[in-house]
Amino acid sequence: MTPRIRRWGLLLAALLAGATAAHDDALPPAQEVVRQHLLGDARAALSRGEPDAALVPLETAAGMSHAADTELLQLQMQLQAGHIRQALAFAAHTAAAHRDEPAARALHLWLLAVSGQADYARRRLNVGDPSDAALVRLLDGLALDQPLPGAAPAPWPHGVAVPQRARPVTTGLLLDAGQLALVPASAAQGNATLWLRNGLGRASHARRAAADPDLAALGLALLHVEPPLPATSSLTRAPRPAFAGSPASRLGMPRVDSAGPAWPVLQLGFLGRTDRHGAQALGWPRGALLSGGPVFDGAGRLIGLAMPGEDGGEHLLPAAALPGLPVRSDAQAVTPDELYEGALPHIAQLLR
After folding, report:
1. InterPro entries under this entry (predicted)?
2. How many domains does one find in the chain?
3. Per-residue b/e over 171-197, b at no fewer than 16 CB within 10 Å?
4. 199 and 122, same structural domain?
């Protein structure tokens, strides 16, 4: 008898015995063993990058007991599948229903913050409460010129194994159904081995494509992604250049001193002025995120990339200079969580 069949047999036996658990009540020991087996099956599916396979065991475990550990795994499943808006709604429920579980509240506030709602998340904090001290530091890291703490929640790693010695060096943009990536050329120089990890935690090998003079002139390098990191949504660009003072959203990978995955961060703000050399400044604090990430307008259309400058600052590389991106003329506004969900599969963390 396989372990999986045995686990489901235990569950069936417990149900046939008529042992049903009320919400928030402790389960009988035999049923708790079954529940833990189900959670183990869900964790194994998530570690393989198969969130759909975690659905049945998690829903079964949730039917046995209204427990915080089950709901936190359900949140991981929703996030791993890229269902950010669904996860935000469910995280609000979990935080309210399990007030005695600090991880539930922390995950809700963290998700609000990384999806462009950091100000609202901060307003939910009790700054004088010692239990919120770690959350204050996490949320401050989204805006201040400092690395994000290593204790921040992270996607479930899967795909190609990334060695512990590797470190993230820049943000990249995935193109051509995830077969190619654009990154700042300065981050891809030399002979070091490269890896790419998309916003959902899946990693692949990366190798430099043949040099392209046009891209090199823009400060960009093209990488082959093996195997590809495909996205189900499409990326479009705005029909016209952005102007100074217009609202914009910047998506980037956080600066973490670790080979592990990290959730991208969406920052809302405004574009800066154009200098005498034609470079348009970005209105976000320096150093909070790795350069190279996409910048969007209020309709979720790409308006450029956040490129590193020689003075340590960043400037906008207009999207019109990037190859192969279709133009979208409609300007229907999108909410930050919609933008975050749609852009998540297109962003990558370059490690070397």
Report:
1. Peptidase_S1_PA
2. 2
3. bbbbbeebbbbbbbbebbeeeeebbbb
4. no
| Section 269-279 average pLDDT | 84
Residues 53 and 125 occupy one common structural domain: yes
Distant-in-sequence, close-in-space partners of 250: CB < 8 Å, separation ≥ 6: 266, 267, 269, 282, 284, 289, 293, 294, 295, 296, 306
Element (H, E) at 123: helix 118-123
Q: Which two tokens stand for residue 337?
A: 């969580």
The H or E element spanning position 15 is helix 3-16
Task: Evaluate whether 250 touches 289 at the Cβ level (below 8 Å).
Answer: yes
**112, 140, 168 — which closes off a domain?**
140
Domain membership of residue 108 as a residue range: 3-140
246, 343: one domain: yes
- Whichever domain contains 203, its CATH number is 2.40.10.120
Q: Cα angle vertex 338, ends 231, 176, to 5°?
A: 20
pLDDT exceeds 90 at position 334: yes
State both tokens at 338. Answer: 């919609």
- Distance from C-alpha of 205 to C-alpha of 188, rounded to nearest angstrom: 13
For the segment 68-100, what is each residue's pLDDT rounded down to a tens digit?
999 999 999 999 999 999 999 999 999 999 988
